[in-house]
Amino acid sequence: MDKLIVTLLGAASIGFIYWFFFGKKEEAAQPKNVWSILVEGGYKPSTVTISHGAPATITFTRKDPNSCLEEIVLPDFKIKKFLPLHKAITVTISPVKKGTYDIHCGMNMYHGKIIVV
Ligand SMILES: [Cu+2]
């Protein structure tokens, strides 16, 4: 009887872990064209998925005083913006081609990704 309970508990926790990691990942991969990225010790989320052929807006809010993160660069879209602390800065992109595009800080140290599907 004890063994059965342990087995059931084990199965339940495996199920939970699976749901926790894979369920969330699937949700993050769902394309949408309005995103908010928190800039704090990096970019959160660091990967955003958008659909091609429609304009997408990404709002960056920097909460990290580290000057390394004060500039956001989207090289493929020729966008470079200063991010004042605690202020939402929105960039709009209209990617026509599917692919993966880089987001990085002014010094190319912190990285994020835009996946266009
Ligand atoms: Cu930097």
Structural features, described:
With 117 residues, the protein is of the alpha+beta class. It folds into 2 domains: 1-30; 31-116, Immunoglobulin-like (Sandwich), CATH 2.60.40.420. Helices cover 24% and strands 39% of the residues. The protein has 1 helix and 9 strands. The strands form 2 sheets. Strands 3-9-8-5-6 form a 5-stranded mixed beta sheet, with no helix packed on it. The longest helix is centred in the first third of the chain and has 28 residues, at 2-29. It starts with a helix and ends with a strand. The model has no long low-confidence stretch (mean pLDDT 88). Copper (II) ion (CU) binds next to loops.
Topology as a string of helices (H) and strands (E):
HEEEEEEEEE
What is the CATH class designation of the largest domain? Mainly Beta
Report the bound ligands by name, code or SMILES. Answer: copper (II) ion
Q: Helical amount among residues, as a percent range?
A: 10-25%
Number of strands: 9
Under CATH, the topology of the largest domain can be stated as Immunoglobulin-like
User: What is the assigned CATH homologous superfamily of the largest domain?
Assistant: Cupredoxins -  blue copper proteins
Morphology call = elongated
**What Rg is obtained from the alpha carbons, in whole angstroms?**
19 Å
Order of strands across the main sheet:
3-9-8-5-6
Give the integer mean of the pLDDT values: 88
- Proportion in β-strands: 35-45%
* Main pleated-sheet profile: 5 strands, mixed
**Overall structural domain count:** 2
